[in-house]
Specification:
5 copies of one chain form a homopentamer. By secondary structure, the first copy, chain A, is an alpha+beta fold. The first copy, chain A, contains 10 helices and 7 strands. In chain A, β5 and β6 form a beta hairpin. The first copy, chain A, is elongated.
């Protein structure tokens, strides 16, 4: 089972802005890939050292309102970092791009809530990339931090492997909108890729809800309950990743930062809609799962009732009869009935009468 | 059972604005019908090709604030498209009416939330048309997208068959308000037709709640529970379609778009009231259904109690008596009581006393 | 049982503003009564035809801000219509007083939510008049629509019989504030009469809650549960009538309509307070009723426990003893114990020991 | 048990502003006490007739913003009325101080919600004074109405006995802040005295929650449940008195009335904080009590389980054994086993084996 | 168990602004420590008398907007008071630093909600320092009050021992940001230390939730339930301490006080984020714990069902058989079956048939 909280205690007492990696310990190498593109050119590289990419990016000119809307002629750069455990890399990037110490701290602390912060020269975005473990039925969360500058994006991920391959494919094809637009449009496309993946998670969860509903109706068991519980748990975590996104994107849309061009805002409205849709579906799922818990409990109560009815019918018919039989099994010397010639057969009559009265009573009570 | 989510995964990785049909696969032909009308004329046609209708619509003049309020003299056109799976038709419409790529994407993706978007030249509305399956007791949802331009409306539906026939009838009769008013009034009438149908759904649901309540009181069973659950599920889906409508219509009413004339706003306030009424009734139903689940559970608990009382009364009376009878059925050589002449009759007295004490105890405990 | 929804389906497809009566079918005649009053005069009549009253009302002068505050010299008229099923009467009124078609539609459609609409020349108010059926314990709802013009009020009710008699009495006495004030004060008095009646409903509900609580403690039964459920249902409906009132009255208080004089606004604040009080008490009742359901369920569980304890104590003591008695009732040829002289008495000792051990165990478990 | 609603029905039909006492009927005499004080003087009296105090109060000068902040030189008067059932006294006060009829109506109608109303010349405050019945464990509510004028306060209480004695003590000592400040500061002190008493109620409730929690863990019974329920009920009423206070005090703090001096506003912020603290603690208690209901139900279910396990273990071991013993108690002529020499002892072996198998099964199921 | 409320009753009747210690009685001496620092100097002392530190602090110059942002040259002083039960110390501080009486009252009354108050010359902050008792699993709450002046901070704590040691360590090292910044930055660092500790509490709670979840699945018992309940209780108290913090910090961030420099506001945004994260995790925990209660109840119901099934199967098979055996144990003279030669063996056949029919029935009902 996934740990509920990551060990953040090692950070206690350090001054703010100290980048300490909070997350699982890792030994894998950190991968750095750079894509430099403009409308006409594309240059894609894997780097050994982070310093190699710094000369590529022209950070001298902060865009004014006018120039930002015509990024043609200037190239954009997307630096992607897979792995956050080598803190010196993060610090070098911080120094080169003049990032605030708190930004660096947030990048490596992978327990961040999704959020957007405007530091003037750059926007800092934190998202959660979700993947669904088909075997464990657990949702894996990975933090994606984006630094959006005037003509560059730096993305930080915890592990190799991401949902950005379609974006890379698009970039490689010349002539698309993505090659003509600036870094903000690329940021939108990355966010879109992350959110698109949420639909996939919802589909998986929806399938699971349906199969559990089916199971609930046909063969409810203790396992069904545990599955329901783990489903509910998944949704609590999903909720935690998705809800703050709403605020993030609407904040981005309304932000007055010159880093976001007007034409990009329409697209932000679109992913805002997607987020609302995801939240909506999530809430529907929540309602359904809690309804399923109710139905599980009611089913069990109903079944208990059925079992008790059977037990009670059998017991209330046969316990008095057994008593009667016991009476005539007694060994008293003087028991006149035992001497009657038809005593045994009379008794059968009496016992049948008792049984019939009982059955009639049960039928009246609608237990049968 | 209806699938919880539609397979949206095939869209992942495509650039935004790519119209991909999300919904059930269909092979039926797409039907295109056009109604062109003004105060004096009406022209109704079925088209083979979407291109045929383009010359009919004069999109040259965007209305200014003044001209919009006097649409007389200009004709309006209503294009209705039944079927969204032929994406090329949608794309041709998009190209002719200069619709934003994101609008086209939203039209074919039938998982949209009801919403209103103002693109300046046109308003884009998404509604959910609901129909009630009398046999399955399930609510069928169909997405209705409306493009409201200055003198045209384009409506997109998933399947043939809709709730707009009364509106068509009205249009055919000359002299009505609908013929004298502009495209915005027609849009209002179409929305009104959709929302009017929600009342029908509510009536059906109300009838079903009443019959279930009746059933709950007279003959609760496992089926009652499953019906309650499916009713609850229906209402979760209804809620999802109706809640966002509130925001949609109030947004439309307050919108500053020149496409909505002042006289139409009064009517929008009217359907806003209807929406609130629908939501209100829906919430009342929700409260009632959850109250019914409580009463179901309480009923079952109460019945269990009744059953257990009967079992306990029978068992606690006869188990001790059976023991006593068993004692005198033993075969010890030396059991003096067995030799007493009236032993058997004394024992009957003792057993009757035990039974009476028990009965008295139960009566004191109010179990009988 | 009251129907959950009224058949609104017959309205589907009709153009907006078509007045169609939604409600129970009625054959009773429609009663029209008119009271025309000023500070010095009072004229009260029953009309055969609605047209008779039109000349009485001077609708020519729309009040300006100044004249409205000095209505002396001008007379006010209150027209009361009992019965909405004769649509032609409503239409004639509409034509004479120039009411908007949507107003007429709302008057006859008795499923309206309480609301206030400002049509400039007149205010349109919808309220719910509630009466409590002492036998059925059901709340009867009747829609009251008020048209407040500059010097007239028209009230529409579904059935004969209303809560306005004290207001009529006041009007008949000369010299009261009501005779000196304008139509807006009369409107306030009518609303006050309706809301005052809500307190009566709350008193009845409060009495019922108390008697149910008493019943719950002393003799809970299946009937208690059904009464609780019907009480809850009553409160759901009450809530639906009362909640929107809050908005209605605060809307009226803040409204900029010249039809509401400044001196009347203080009184509106007073009935606003009353509404809040009613809502508050209602919410308290809701909390109490849901607490009662919990206590009902807990009581039943507790009682089940008590019953099971008794059954278990009796059964666990006597079942082993019966087994022992059964053993010595067997007919094996070679059973040495049966031959012992004191065997029978030894066995009684053993059985008493078993019973004592059991009792000790139950006492330790605190079951006795 | 306290009645849920007071009989307000006798008010129905009366014109607004008619003061009718709503509350328990009383015969006790009404007590009127007056304290007239300034920085240097103090004059305390009990009055027979309310008219006696009117000349004492100088109502001629309504304070302007400047003079209000320097009340030195002017004396303040606090009139306290214990008992609301003599309506004529209230009416005389109303006439002398020119109170609005609606104010008088609210003073005698003791079902008011806590509220603050600004009538220009005076502020009208309604509070609820709570006292805890140590024996009944019920909270007694008494309405306190305050009229705050420029240099006088009139307080109205339902019964003799109040929480204001410490304030009186302070007033009697010369040199305190209270003697130097104006009527608004006295009003604050009275409100503070009322709210301070809420802490006492919370302490009592807290003690009761703790003793119930203790009881729940050690010896839960039906009484525990009823105590929980009555505790919950107490908190519903407490909540009703305390929640509106928040709005009242923040309204007073932000009010633009010249009757509240700037220096007093800091103290109002302080009692606002107290109110929030009371509400906070109250909500914590609510959460705890509802958690206790859950634990009660779970405990009962758990105990039921334990009981059922014991019953089932005993029954499933001995019922089959009793059957076996019963078989060999039959009187068939031809039962070979009965004739075997060691038959009886073999059977004991078989029965021991059955019992051991059963015990092994229960241990595997973790029932023992 | 911790008391729910502290005895505040002794305060009743005292005038506002009277500092009375509300909390546990203590006899330990009050510790006063002072740290005086600037960029170049550091002076740390323990004081015997609070008066000794007053000359150290230059309170003459209230900072203007400009000077506050350049605190270099001026030294800052941090006075830390451990122990609130010596009210005279608090009063002396109040007199020297001109604190409002209400501030002094709030410092010693340790039942405050976290809050921020701006008194112009100083800001008054109340926080809750939480520590987790590893043995008792209880959260210990200690009130931290901070007075933030232009160049001094006074912190008040209830007991010796705090979470500020890392801050002291930082201060002792020269050259850090903390030595260069003003008193507001120190205040931020103290708040940060308190909030950082909340993560530790959350980690502990998270571990406990996980171990309880494990326990719930493998070996649920009455103790599990009590642990769940005490966990829930801990979270109610945590919630009470953390929720108001959100408002406090955002108030501080938006405050217009000249005591907060612009550069410090970025850091306040950071701890605001931390607070939101803590709240988020807390709410997730709440959801999980309430889900666990549900699963506990469902588990118990399910187990009850299993137990009842076993009991019912055994009882319904053997009770009828025992009856049959009882019948042939009767001693009637005339019982033909007993005389049949194969009677006994026939009966075994009949009994086996009965058992098989029963088993078949149970299998059909899916009880086995």
């Amino acid at each position: 089972m996934k740990k509920l909280t990551k060990k953040r205690s090692k950070k206690i007492g350090l001054p703010p802005g100290t980048p300490v990696h909070i997350g699982d310990e890792k030994t894998a190498p950190v991968t750095i890939s750079v894509i430099n593109y403009s409308e006409t050119l594309l240059n894609e590289r894997k780097l050994q050292k982070i310093e190699e990419c710094f000369p590529l990016i022209d950070t001298s000119t902060v865009p004014s309102e006018g120039t930002a809307s015509s990024p043609s002629g200037r190239s954009c750069t997307w630096i992607n970092i897979d792995g956050l455990h080598k803190v010196d890399i993060i610090e070098k990037i911080g120094a080169n791009f003049k990032l605030h110490p708190l930004t660096l701290e947030d990048i490596v602390n992978t327990e961040q809530r999704p959020k957007m912060e405007d530091y003037g020269d750059y926007l800092f975005l934190v998202l959660k990339m979700l993947t669904y473990g088909d075997k464990t039925h657990e949702i894996h969360t990975e933090q994606v931090s984006l630094i959006l500058g005037s003509n560059f994006i730096i993305s930080f991920l915890e592990d190799p492997g991401d949902v950005f391959d379609p974006v890379r494919e698009r970039l490689r094809k010349s002539g698309g909108k993505i090659r003509k637009s600036g870094a903000d449009y690329l940021a939108y496309r990355l966010m879109d890729a992350v959110i698109d993946h949420y639909y996939l998670i919802l589909e998986k969860l929806g399938d699971r809800i349906e199969s559990l509903e089916e199971e609930l109706v046909t063969r409810p068991s203790q396992t069904t309950l545990h599955n329901l519980h783990s489903l509910k748990r998944s949704m609590i975590f999903l909720r935690k990743s998705v809800w703050p996104l709403r605020e993030l994107i609407s904040g981005l849309e309304r932000s007055e930062s010159v880093l976001i061009q007007k034409t990009t805002r329409v697209f932000l409205r679109d992913i805002y809609d997607h987020t609302i849709q995801v939240i909506d579906t999530m809430e529907t799922f929540r309602d359904m799962v809690s309804g399923m818990l109710d139905i599980y409990l009611s089913s069990i109560s109903y079944k208990m009732n059925e079992i008790m009815k059977v037990l009670t019918i059998i017991a209330t018919i046969f316990i008095p009869l057994t008593f009667v039989a016991g009476v005539y099994g007694m060994n008293f010397d003087n028991m006149p009935e035992l001497r009657w010639h038809w005593g045994y057969f009379y008794l059968w009559g009496v016992m049948a009468a008792i049984a019939l009265v009982m059955l009639f009573y049960f039928r009246k009570k609608k237990w049968m």
